[in-house]
Specification:
mainly alpha; Butyryl-CoA Dehydrogenase, subunit A, domain 3
Length: 197
């Protein structure tokens, strides 16, 4: 499909978030989603087959269309993410969830411990280990309160073990911007935890 003007794109985004012309959305973004799926597999050093790319591309659109297009309705340009970036973000998230399934082989498959959980496991002092586990549980509960982009960057970096450069590449953003998002996420979580002391 040819590139849309800003006005045309905004009109179509309104239609898509209302559950209209969804076949057009699939046609327009199908190639981008498949490319992002493949790129995310590569960044995670995970093996994949052609069928995996096709299945996960379909899965992304199932997620976008289900529950009356709830994920599409959550898109908000004021959060600083372009609509294309939002589609990539959902795609990356879908692949990461798939890779973390217990029945999947690969770097993020069979080993269900996140990098943070592994670090806690290496702690020898029982008091510090218990304290670290409690803090991790508190962080996981509060992650839902972070804005979407901050939550995703935090999870991809701290829980899934991607470097900030890998996160930037998968979200198609500048590394400096990802540093800012990570810093903001950490600050917001720290403030939440401090408020409860």
């Amino acid at each position: 499909m040819k590139k849309m003007t800003k006005e045309e794109e905004q009109r179509r985004i309104r239609e898509w978030t209302q559950g209209k012309e969804l076949e057009e959305l699939f046609q327009y973004y199908g190639g981008l989603v498949a490319h992002t799926v493949r790129k995310t597999f590569s960044l995670c050093h995970a093996r994949f087959k052609k069928e995996d790319i096709e299945d996960l591309t379909q899965e992304v659109f199932v997620r976008l269309f289900e529950q009356e297009c709830n994920l599409l309705k959550q898109y908000n340009e004021e959060r600083g993410l372009h609509f294309t970036g939002w589609i990539k973000l959902i795609t990356t998230q879908t692949v990461m969830m798939y890779l973390r399934k217990k029945d999947r082989f690969g770097r993020l498959g069979k080993d269900t411990l996140s990098p943070i959980e592994k670090e806690i496991g290496q702690e020898t002092d029982l008091h510090h280990k218990t304290e670290a586990k409690m803090t991790l549980e508190r962080i996981e509960k509060r992650l839902k309160r972070l804005p979407t982009l901050e939550r995703l960057v935090f999870k991809l970096h701290f829980f899934d073990g991607l470097s900030l450069q890998e996160v930037a590449s998968s979200l198609n953003r500048e590394i400096n911007y990802i540093y800012q998002i990570k810093h903001r996420a950490v600050t917001l979580l720290k403030d939440m935890l401090d408020e409860e002391k």
